[in-house]
Write a structure and sequence with these properties.
This protein has about 180 residues and is mainly α. The chain is built from 7 helices and 3 strands. It binds 2-acetamido-2-deoxy-beta-D-glucopyranose (NAG) (2 copies). Its EC number is 3.2.1.17.
């Protein structure tokens, strides 16, 4: 009885995860990455990496062994996250690398990049490095980038506003190691 119930719960959770799966088109992905403020310089490398690693599927999961798994759009390895609670080198849950929200994935991927470079991703090395990269310059958002929220005018800089600005700039530094 109890195990049937557990099985039902697992089934529901699996279905929920399945529903959260999102597969971007190349231009949608370009848009999202520009919105999160990836530097344009290496954007086609990131798009290539994501296409090769996950087919632009936010819930891609590759299980090599029970201790060696790769999660999400960027196929980030299990040493960078922890299942069930925050942890690993990115201090996040591995589950959060499988949902549609790719902001946290991106922060983590940039951390991987800072520490290991693109060569961390073997498929980038094999299929992107020195190869022709996806042509994202045709994407509408490459030509007309989505608006970036600017900081509020000086007189609106309340305590909360200041906090947000600080958070903002820390994030943009993290996401722009290349600028
Ligand atoms: C995305 O990945 C999930 C998990 O691996 C898989 O179940 C789903 O079929 C994939 N979606 C597409 C469209 O490939
Ligand atoms: C994006 O990066 C640019 C250049 O580093 C910065 O001026 C801008 O504030 C950043 N925007 C966001 C939303 O982080």
């Amino acid at each position: 009885m109890a195990s049937t119930r557990a099985l039902q719960i697992i089934l529901i959770l699996t279905l929920c995860l399945g529903l959260q799966a999102k597969v971007f088109t190349r231009c949608q992905l370009t848009r999202e990455l520009l919105k999160i403020n990836f530097s344009r310089t290496f954007l086609s490398n990131w798009v290539c990496l994501i296409e090769q690693e996950s087919d632009r599927n936010t819930s891609a999961l590759v299980v090599k062994t029970s201790r060696r798994k790769y999660y999400g759009l960027f196929q980030i390895g299990s040493e960078w996250c922890k299942e069930g609670k925050k942890g690993g080198k990115c201090d996040i849950t591995c589950e959060s690398l499988l949902d549609e929200d790719i902001k946290d994935d991106s922060v983590c991927a940039n951390k991987v990049f800072e520490q290991e470079g693109f060569k961390y991703w073997s498929k980038w090395e094999a299929r992107c490095k020195g190869h022709s990269l996806p042509d994202i310059e045709k994407c509408p958002d490459w030509v007309h980038p989505p608006p970036i929220r600017s900081s509020p005018p000086r007189d609106k800089r309340t305590a909360r506003g200041k906090r947000n600005i600080r958070r903002f700039s820390r994030r943009s530094i993290m996401l722009n190691p290349l600028i």
